[in-house]
Specification:
alpha+beta; four-stranded antiparallel sheet; about 20% helix; elongated
Length: about 450
Amino acid sequence: MRVNRRGKNISEFEQKNEPKNQRKNEQGIVILLVAVFMLFVVGAMAALSIDVVTLYTARSEAQLAADAGALAGARVLANSGMTSDPTLTATAETGPFGASLVAQWVATHNSVGGTRLNNAEVTVTFPATAPFSNPQITVQIQVTDLPTFFSRIWGNQQLAVTATATAEAYNPSGAFAIGAGPPVAPLCVKPWLLPNIDPTQTNPAVPIFAATGTAAAGLVGKSWPNATNPNGLFSACAGDCSLGISAPAAGQYYPGAIDATDFPAPTALPSCAAGFNAYQTAVAGCVQRPISCGTASAINPSAINIDQNPYAAGTRDSDTVQAVGCLIHYNVPGGVLGDADSIDLFDTPSTPYEFWGGNQNPIPSAQNQPITVSDSLVTIPVIDNPPGTPANPATVIGFLQVFLNPSALTTFPSAGNQIPVMIINAVGCAGTNLPSPILGNGASPVAVRLITPP
């Protein structure tokens, strides 16, 4: 017979049941240990997941900031005219109001990890491009001091994120363009079909675009009326082509046919367009139908027509002036100097120009401030006119981007219901049977696009 710790005898029955009683007392210990262990494991995993989610969110925010900065910088390159004139490259990229400054300004107006970016965290570069490529801009965001929440228990006090975006200004006929590249198809094109004659001079009649789609040199920054051509932009055919299409003249446009095929009604109009006819709404609003070069393409199934319908209510010129006054916020009738946006010819007397918000700019924060986009900056199609008068339907061979009434010191309109304009960009196309075009993002004929994957 056995004796226990207290000196008492242990019966045979107690000896037989002793292991079973001990096992009963030990039940649940392992589960308790596992539960405690899992508590620490799950807690650590949860803590780590919070930091991982924070990191991925900050990475997405950094990418959005980089994308926004690159696109804004590329828009400056597109509007600067450098794709049409390579001598403007240095100023367009790093000038006082160049793409570098704008890209950095836009990027730093974004937050990453709850903190607004600063200039040191944004790097802007311009990749070296081949002789026939289009200008590009790269924005890199690098934030190295994102705070951690729980992973600091492993010694990680801060996290870092990096994001990069590259955008391109694409001009199929520019100095850096690829000759075999696809054409562009801008939106908001105005129904003014300009013949292929340099509008800034009258003698000799130099074409705007060659057969290869290359734009004539020196167009960017030129305006009309000027000493060579005293007339502004106004309609050919004396404002009514129903009696026949007149011979082309420098700076005169043929009114485009306003219908659902060529220029359908805009979906939105400014309040000053109340009571406008269909032609005027196409001028004052944004026609959402893309216009491309050539006689036919996947996105341009029909050619553009010159309007030969009788026009009983005066001429296109008076209607154009009223519609343009609404478009550029000149408050016609009754507009005063400084109402409309303008080009700052004092601080930037040469290209690329700085655009300046007018007193009536619809965005209050843009009034009397430098701006990168303007309702006064419009795109007009250039049509082929092989010798003599142009054919109808007309063939679009390129686009001019012009600034309407560019000087804040010029009354609007000029003499004879004519519109002063300045050329900002020239975009041409080679041939007529062209591949599917690149859709423009807005009124600019120089397409801006991100070329880096998200």
